Amino acid sequence: MLTQYSGLSKEVRDFVNYTVLDCLKLNSQLRLRGVFKSKVVKPKQDNFWFLSWSDIIELRMAIVDENMFEVFKIVFGITEKDFIKLEMFNAFAVYGWIAKQVSEMIKIEFQELSNDLTDEEKNAGAEELQEFGYSLTLDVLTKGDLLKSDDWLRIAYAKIFRKLCIDKKRYDINKTLQENASRKLKRDS
Hints:
Blueprint: H1 10-21, E1 30-32, E2 39-41, H2 53-64, H3 68-76, H4 80-84, H5 88-113, H6 119-123, H7 134-141, H8 149-154, H9 157-188
Antiparallel strand pairs: 1-2
């Protein structure tokens, strides 16, 4: 039964993931069993970049926790009553589709936003900030104003990501300018 998936041991879940998720054709439409026919439920957004930032954060946590109900609730807005009616193989195919979408987003984020820390930044303890995850980014975007947090979390993640890309580009340009100025100073001395 699908509702029992999260209660399975890690070894059994890994076996299910291997035998079921890896063999199914990924699908973006959930099917709910009905008395006479199935009902198709489409995602709130086909493109996850347009989900709110808070939905993306919760979705990632639900995937890490392998909480299928929470994943489907976030992406499709289904209730527990609907979750019980899901067709099992279809649900796994849709779960695989969701996990793939999120994985692709993470790859793009890493490609566009990752930054190698300088030795000076490492010595200053910049790596310790990574433990705060999205909270650090939220703090930077709100400029420390907690009253603005909910506003930022409601924004489509595509806009948040774009803002982060712009900020990173500014940082990279400023860093290059500083390095060039430092080299010029050394040359002129």
